[in-house]
Amino acid sequence: MTGATTPITYATYDTLVQYNPRTKAYIGVVAKSWEVTPSSIKFQLRSDVKCRDGSAFTPTDIAASLKAYMDPKTGSPYATRWLGKAPLTFTADDAGSTLTITAAEPFGSLLAGLKMVPLVCPAGLKDRARLASGAEGSGPYELADSKPGLSYTLKLRDDYTWGPSGMTSGAPGVPETIILKVINSDATAANELLAGTIDVSGLGGVDAQRVESNKSIAKTVVATQGQWSVVGNMEAGHVTADPEVRHALFQAIDRRALLLAYLGPTASDIELGTSVLPPNMPGYDESTKELVPEFSPEAAKATLSAAGWTESGGHWTKDGKVLQVRVIGGAGWGNANEYLASQFKNIGVDVKLSVTDENGWLADLSSGNYDITIFPIDGSVEAPTALMSFYVGALPPTGTNFIRNGDAELTAIVDQAAASVGAEADKLWATVQTKLLRNYDLLPWQVPVTPIYTSPKVTLQINGLPSTLAIRRTKG
């Protein structure tokens, strides 16, 4: 299998819960059940969980792990994103196997964040140096060998009985050994998969097509919790500050054609976005798909005309100014940037196109030196609060509101939703999605997926499990 850090982490460490994007439901790992309010979660924990060294993993131990993760000295880059900015208090009851986490301020995404936080056992907290080359968790695997940059060997524990979705040491097909090979080339990974020297790999582009021609290789498409959109700079002084200009530009885009320009034939695996949130994320409102602008160059021209722009000589003008947009994009996005520029030119909009490497694109995005760009949010987004931080709130460099949206009413609703749980949160997130789409703040484009290819020796049983733990032997 290719890859390293994330597969190792979630194979050697447990979390309190996991999330099954197919059912949009949380499933217990170390936790058996939980009661959620906007500012607290009470977990009933399993009493049979053991650390790698065989010691019991108690509620007090788990509280200590979470406290360490939040400690600024630890330097966890996602601590405030996953666990919130307000202080947390932990009440552990070892006799009753409960752990209550209380936030000083309401934070409705706490459960979503906790599914991301690996729990470190006392041995690892006592001697942090052991975590640099090994793993001190309660997960189903131990890190038996580490050759950084080359390979990592995981060995199955024989006493793991508490995993989610039937993931136990004795479950049929659970591999006793997993070797994670670091392969930095899709071409090399494809060659090894076809040769039978590896059994699992993610692939893209022409190498994926090459592997798919071999009918013995199976493909599993796993949807992520990210979403790519096309966005406009809403800051005053930019032509795209006008929602009707954004509306017209979005109408000029055939989203499926944009996918083909980006990915070529492999675009067939990708679903078009239907709202601001991806369908497998809590808070997604399917009804808002009706607000996504349909592709129509003629409608785009009509929108501009209704907004006071005049078409003459192949250009649009208003108040003596020519309609011109600066489109920026990353060099790794195939022909997607060029497609956007050509579509805008086709409706008479003047275009300045700037395609740079990722650092150059991010510098332009952060400084607001753009009018239109593709905005990629990949599968690391665990909850609506994290995704919305890109669309509202503080501007760079102190924040991540890259579209420079100054809608105070929208920001207030996002804050309300972030402090809510359950049906109330869903209702507020639906309002947020509606406002963003009705104001043409963004055009949902694609929900990225991860295609995983497997040899005949193995199969995948995802069911909300991290991909490493979903591997099952079929033979050999």
Automatic annotation (TrEMBL):
InterPro entries: Peptide/Ni-bd, SBP_5, SBP_5_dom
CDD domains: PBP2_NikA_DppA_OppA_like
Entry keyword set: Signal, Transport
Domain Solute-binding protein family: 27-391
SUPFAM superfamilies: Periplasmic binding protein-like II
Gene3D superfamilies: Dipeptide-binding Protein, Domain 1, Dipeptide-binding Protein, Domain 3, Periplasmic binding protein-like II
Family to which the UniProt record says this protein belongs: Belongs to the bacterial solute-binding protein 5 family.
Protein name: ABC transporter substrate-binding protein
Organism: Microtetraspora fusca
